Amino acid sequence: MEFFAVKGGRPLEGTVAVHGAKNSALPILAATLLARGESVLHNCPDLTDIQTALEILAALGCRVRREGRTVLVDTTDCTGTAVPDELMGRMRASVLFLGSLLARGGEAAASWPGGCALGARPIDLHIRAFQALGTEVLDREGRLLCRTRGLRGCRMALPFPSVGATENAMLAACGAAGVTIIHNAAREPEIQDLQGFLRSLGADVRGAGTGEIVIRGGVPLHPGEYTIMADRIVTATYLCAVAAAGGEGEFFGSDGAALLPVLDALEQTGCRIRREPDRVRIWQAGKAAGIGSVTTGPYPGFPTDAQPLLAAVLAGGRGETRITETIFDSRFRYVESLRTMGARIRVEGTTAWITGTPLRGADLEADDLRGGAALTIAALGAEGESRILSPFHIDRGYERLEKAFQALGGRIRRMNE
Ligand code: UD1
Questions:
Q1: Whose CA is nearest to atom 12 of ligand 1?
Q2: How far is the CA of 11 from the centre of ligand 1 (A)?
Q3: What predicted TM-score, i.e. pTM, was given to this entire model?
Q4: Pocket around ligand 1: residues whose beta carbon is below 6 Å from it?
Q5: What is the 3-class SS of 348-370, one letter each residue?
Q6: What pLDDT digit, counting tens, does each position of 232-259 carry?
Q7: Pocket of ligand 1, candidates 29, 137, 160, 296: which has the most ligand atoms within 8 Å of its Cβ, to mutate?
Q8: Which of 97, 135, 137, 263 has its Cα between 20 and 30 A from that of 165?
């Protein structure tokens, strides 16, 4: 059984380079299917969700290889149209391959997607986007079959700015004849990164980062070369670890512009933050203070993925905070584990009231990716020893999280007993 052994209660100090963004790399890997030939992706993180995406590409007939941080995907012999069930079940973002497969060959099949247990996570918006572009979508005994005789550009308005549905619509629209306009598109930085890669393929896409994305489809595409942006949630994780344990840290890879609500919240807890062109620096002298209230929202709101991370900081701090989760209906599962550490947190529906109090080490179970990272942060800030069980959840989104914390002087080891 694998676990992280953490001895907390000691300030962190050091410098860490932030790896590439998982949530950019996943749709970009799916997008490589749009062009015939070999695309090259730099700064592609080496973590299990990316491994799953590479396995999907290989199962579809692509030749895939990794050279350090660079991944090369050759789609020349890709003839597959179905995402294997087992890979679909491992990760929800597998659904992103459907848009690219439709654009590539007019056909795509998959079972319903898996992923972190964060409550109901339907894909109706993805399906509606495919239908609007002229796809027939059938549910055959739990399998999703998508077929089109030719995608047609259209105007669509998403009822909610879903990140994945926006990406899938962009991917499919690249293969549609004519112009597609996506209204109420998600504005996350990862969508801009996808647009950047699509342009490197020669695609005519504009508007990412705003609520209206315009794609002129049917343009001939060629393989591309692109560098994936630094992971903003990983940056937030490192910053929150320093905020919880005290000390100072310097995190390379971005200027923190994509993280402003998190930086703002951390400053309110008493941290000092400095943004520089290629890095974010943080200093935390005392215990994190409560900050009144925080509400998650679509970008540029407070990111739901950073919600458990901030909660871990506040739980071990002092003072009161109310956190309201508006994106997922079940994203407080980590609270039970924090309570084992002595945390004072009351949850009602999608709101958590946190009263900061010193935490003590405990045996904790990582239930999902960001929840697991949050427990690790809490353990670094707590007095005594903790064991974080099931770190495979954490490995889905972090390249060896324990190594980054070791570089900051954190007493954390991956054990197997
Ligand atoms: C992406 C991120 C995830 C992040 C989330 C919100 C990836 C690989 N994952 O997930 O880390 O937490 O954005 O920032 O990029 N919804 C529907 N129907 C749909 C699609 C979504 O009702 O067809 C709902 C979801 O259940 C959820 C909300 O919309 O309540 C947001 O989901 P969405 O933005 O689509 O998140 P993901 O793309 O799954």
A1: 305
A2: 35
A3: 0.97
A4: 23, 26, 92-93, 120-126, 160, 162-165, 186, 190, 304-305, 327-328
A5: ECCEEEEEECCCECCEEECCCHH
A6: 999 999 999 999 999 999 999 999 999 9
A7: 160
A8: 263
